[in-house]
Every structure is written in C-alpha cells, then in structure tokens.
Amino acid sequence: MPYYILYAMRNFKDLEVWKSARTLAKEIYLLTATFPVEEKFGLTSQIRRCSVSIAANIAEGSAKNSIKDFTRFLEISQGSCFELESHIILASDLGFIETSHCELHQKHIILLQKRLYNFIKHNRSKVNGTA
Known about the structure:
By secondary structure, the chain is mainly alpha-helical. 76% of the residues lie in helices and 0% in strands. It has five helices and no strands. α2 (16-32) runs antiparallel to α3 (43-62). The chain is elongated. It starts with a helix and ends with a helix.
C-alpha cells in the first residue's frame, strides 16, 4: 500500500498531540466552571471553544489525503492554542484565575504549542523531501 494512503488513514486517537489537546480541553472546562456566571456567554464560552478547537482540528486534519492538508489543520490547531493562552492570561488579569493556576495552565498550553510546532516542522520536511 502506498505511503500516502497509509498516512491518510492515520488514527488521530494515536497521536500524542491529540491526546494532550484532549486533556487540556478537559482541564479548561473544569477551570472555566469556576468563572463568574455573567461570563458564561463571554470569555468562558470563547475559552472553551478554542480549547476544543485544538483537538478537533487535529482530528479533522488526520482524515486529509495529503501531509500538506493535514499540516494546515495542525497550523489552525496551533493558532487556537495561542488564542487560548491569550484568553487564559486575560482571565487571570480579570481575577477569574489565580496566578499560580494561570502559570500551570500556561505551561501545559506552551508544551502543546511546542509539540504542534515540532509536528508541523516534521510534516513540512516530509513535503519538502528533507525528512
């Protein structure tokens, strides 16, 4: 079976970046449950949406037929990861998250950003024939 067909059949549930994104989304849901009720349709909703988007785009991209297309979805996931980090900092600034909790979540987010970056870089090297 050709390599590109095997790659397109990748199971996203086996990807470490997806597992990490899934864990992060769960943590974010638990964290935002403590936010003020009046933020339910504001920052809480926005934070939850972008946290879920990270794992969802990894999963969606894994179904694409080319490494280039998959990599584009990984880039979208990475963008959502940076958006989430910004929202978490804002939530801390507003007093919704204690500084120590903010730092802990930021560490997890930054680790996921690095993993996504390395996965994207690896995939680009395959597309460019340098892997």
